[in-house]
Amino acid sequence: MTDQLAYALITPYSLYKSRTGGIIGRMLANPDLELVAGRMFVFSDEFVDKYQKIVCPGDTDPAIAEAWRKYIDESLRRDNPWNHLPRCMLLLFKGPNAVRCLKEEVIGAFTEHPSGDTIRGTYGDFLRDEKKNIRYFEPAVLTCPDPEMSNSHLELLAEYALSDGGILDGQMQYEQDNVQCSLVMLKPDNFYRPSRRPGNIIDTFSMTGLRIVGIRLFNMTVAQGEEFYGPLKDIFIDKLKFLVTNEVMSRLGDAFDFPFGEDDADVLAGHLAERNATAEFNKIVEYMTGVNPDQISDPAEKATASQTTCLGILYEGPNAIEKIRTVLGSTDPSKAEPGTVRSDFGRDLMRNGAHASDSPENALRERKIVGLAEKETDTCPVKKIINDYLGK
Questions:
Q1: What is the mean pLDDT of residues 183-211?
Q2: Beta partners for residue 185, in sequence order
Q3: At which of 285, 303, 321 does a domain end?
Q4: Over residues 164-184, mean pLDDT
Q5: Among 21, 142, 279, 280, which residue has the least CB neighbours within 10 Å?
Q6: CB pairs under 8 A, 24+ apart, for 362-370?
Q7: pLDDT at 371
Q8: Is residue 143 in a domain?
């Protein structure tokens, strides 16, 4: 069976209340759904007007349909009752019967008797008055309930992906100064199999109180990996030299019929330090990309060589760099503070759950490398994936 493409649109209220991680975790844990793209949106009135008209199937109860139109009209517009930027997070999934699976098994239906087995049961609200009129509801996530309607929804999202979607930094007001934008990158071992792990990590970062203003799923290429981690290579030459000295001493200390001491070992280590640094650097690139740089004969292939998945997320707010680094924890998971991302989800120095920028300057440098620095002008992953699926 050909895979279907389905979408989930996390609502502004869910993002505002930092429920994002829990919602994403529910979706990613389903073995029949594969996340293929993500994008932040603040929708134009033009989009909202069109979306209202197609959001409900024709056989929807008129009261429910009217409640949906009212909800979209009030919640998705910039001019809304809460006076906050109506950020939405779009996630695209593929899989057999993805539309039905996402809606029925994961997101769920509205219910007056909340149940924690679905996203809406846990994070949504649905209230009627004594006359059974709908008084209030919050769906938590928007999606298409009908496979036959799904393509029209996807087509509309693709149409506005460039104009209404992308990076939202600099659009919100804060009472405090020193507003920064930090890049967080969830590393490949979070995506080796379906699990709630990525969502749980995002939920941990929600403790910072920062706002998500950008998201991008990407396959880090060898070229990106070498550029992203490039500054480490020179650091490794000096920082790891002592390891080479120790190794030389342990292997050659008693190999000769003359005295061989640490000074001798240190001289040899000086000749080997750069090669050792390159080897250690390549291990990082291979972990992040799934490809050993030494096995690529044509340098041009580095621009596309990749076998892994990463998720880049931008967090904005006062002192964002420091707040994110505090919640991230120490590089070594065994030494990371309890309750931090690396303490809870890290395995070792390399597989430590996530990366986060350590300065505003590095944040901007890293954002450019992974494609979360500038607004696209021609196409974007979401638009391309949808158009390819629709045969456009």
A1: 97
A2: 312, 355
A3: 303
A4: 95
A5: 279
A6: 363/180, 363/181, 363/182, 363/183, 363/321, 366/183, 366/185, 366/228, 367/181, 367/183, 367/312, 367/314, 369/224, 369/227, 369/228, 370/183, 370/185, 370/216, 370/218, 370/220, 370/224, 370/228, 370/310, 370/312
A7: 96
A8: yes
Q: In the predicted model, is pLDDT for residue 266 greater than 80?
A: yes
Residue 82 burial (C-beta neighbours within 10 Å; 0-12, 13-18, 19+): exposed
User: Into how many domains does the chain fold?
Assistant: 2
pLDDT of residue 114: 67
CATH number at residue 60: 3.30.70.141
Residue 9 in domain: yes
The active-site residue out of 84, 113, 153, 355 is 355
State yes or no: is 84 an active-site residue: no
Separation CA 324–CA 208 (nearest Å): 7
Predicted local distance difference test score (pLDDT) of residue 329: 96
Residue type, 174: Y
Residue 127, pLDDT above cutoff 90: no
Structural domain that includes position 382: 4-166+375-390
Report residue 286's pLDDT band, with 50, 70 and 90 as the boundaries.
very high
pTM, two decimals, is 0.93
In a domain, 41, yes or no: yes
What confidence tens digit (pLDDT) does each residue in 299-317 have?
A: 999 999 999 999 999 999 9
* 309 falls within a domain: no
Three-state SS for the chain is: CCCEEEEEEECHHHHHCCCHHHHHHHHHCCCCCEEEEEEEECCCHHHHHHHHHHCCCCCCCHHHHHHHHHHHHHHCCCCCCCCCCCCEEEEEEEECCHHHHHHHHHHCCCCCCCCCCCHHHHHCEEEECCCCCEEEEECCEECCCCHHHHHHHHHHHHHCHHHHECCCCCCCCCCCCCEEEEEEEECHHHCCCCCCHHHHHHHHHHHHCCEEEEEEEECCCHHHHHHHCHHHHHHHHHHCHHHHHHHHHHHHCCCCCCCCCHHHHHHHHHHHHHHHHHHHHHHHHHHHHCCCHHHCCCHHHHHCCCCCCEEEEEEEEECHHHHHHHHHCCCCCCCCCCCCHHHHHCCCCCCCCEEECCCHHHHHHHHHHHCCCCCCCCCCHHHHHHHHHHCC
